[in-house]
Design a protein that fits this description.
Blueprint lengths: L15 E5 L2 E6 L9 E5 L6 E4 L18 E10 L2 E11 L6 E9 L6
Antiparallel strand pairs: 1-2, 2-3, 3-4, 5-6, 6-7
């Protein structure tokens, strides 16, 4: 099989991939774009489709006042004990040597958050 890189075209930075049985899931950063985090699904690590945008409520991600290029950076997706675990940071300050961010953990039995 010939594979062309990148396998996931477009703006999909900071990928985090986990395997659940025969399925692969990839979470990517969305920065200041809402809803937060995009999760893709693949059976072969080559062909990907958008499966979920799990952070759709302001109770999960409140980006009021976030600067350009702030928001969700480098989400981490894993699966254990029958649950998807998504850790993400909401970056509030991007200027200077230090970043100010709030860190969160959400879990769900299905990758779409339900």
């Amino acid at each position: 099989m010939k594979i062309t890189n990148p396998v996931l075209k477009g703006f999909n930075p900071d990928p985090s991939i986990c395997r659940v049985g025969e399925d692969y899931y990839m979470a990517v950063s969305t920065f200041e774009w809402f809803p937060g985090v995009q999760i893709y699904h693949s059976k072969d690590l080559v062909h990907w489709r958008l499966a979920a945008r799990p952070l759709q409520k302001t109770s999960q991600l409140d980006m009021k006042g976030n600067p350009d290029s702030g928001g969700v950076w480098a989400p981490c997706l894993s699966y254990a004990d029958g649950q998807f675990w998504l850790i993400y940071s909401d970056i509030k300050v991007v200027d200077g040597p230090f970043k100010d961010g709030h860190n969160y953990l959400v879990t769900a039995s299905e990758v779409d958050g339900d």
